[in-house]
Amino acid sequence: MRFLSGRFLLGLVILGVGVILLLNNLVEGIDIDIRQVLRLWPVIPLVLGLSWLFASFGSSSAEGEQKAFFSWGQFVTALIAIAIGVIFLGRNLDLFYVDTRIFWNLLWPVVLILIGISLLRGRAFSSAGGGRFAFMGGSEIGGSEPWKLESGSYFAVMGGIEMDLRAAEIPQGETILDLTAIMGGIDVKVPRDLAVIFDGNAVLGGVTFKEHEDGGLIGGRKIESNVEEGADKILRIQARAIMGGVEVKEA
């Protein structure tokens, strides 16, 4: 089942406001108070929250099997969005009043704590290992020519990193890529038959592994792909996105 996306709902709202303004300007006798319409803005987080709530309980197709999953990050994000929608809709329609200062005073310190925990979970590698840092710019790694992949940390801060592992020479054993995107993005292309263990989490961002997506206020998921007992080459990707995005896809 496909659920509503934030982009679709926002586009629908902007379209509706535009139509109302056009009717007010062109059609005599129609005078819709746009301020009264805008008071209904809490409907947006409310509807999105309900959509995310149902989407947090779902199933995915992995290696020919349907597997049920529960996305705790999406579930928590959904509850917060629903709470914001209900509280502000009630206030705007004069149905009830809730003092939101306690909510906001708790929310942002919790977000900062989650960001700190996410960063502390990263792996540290020696300067001899692989790695790249992109700050307010872009960096491309890999390509059609063979190259040797090493464990390393990759940071994208208000910038982007594109990694293409299709021609990479992957060593025996476990290779670890520690990916951090802060207000930026990291895209990784992996071979279809490569054994991959993906462990991603997001704070005000999103992480994607193949068809699996997680994100929002907080989110996270661990997925294994093509991992069989006795696999001689395993790529472990530890990803975190903070107000940014990390995407791993097959190519």
Helix content: 25-40%
Shape: elongated
Strand percentage, roughly?
Answer: 35-45%
| Secondary-structure element series | HHHEEHHEEEEEEEEEEEE
**What's the number of helices?**
5
Q: Terminal Cα separation, in Å? A: 26 Å
Number of E-state strands: 14
Radius of gyration, in Å, reads 22 Å
Low-confidence stretches: none
Mean pLDDT over all positions: 81
The total tally of domains equals 2
Largest sheet: 10 strands, mixed
The structural class is alpha/beta
Describe this protein's structure.
- With 251 residues, this protein is α/β, with parallel strands linked by helices.
- The protein is built from 5 helices and 14 strands.
- The strands form 3 sheets. Strands 3, 4, 6, 7, 9, 10, 11, 12, 13 and 14 form a 10-stranded mixed β-sheet that branches. Strands 1-2 form a two-stranded antiparallel sheet. Strands 5-8 form a two-stranded parallel sheet.
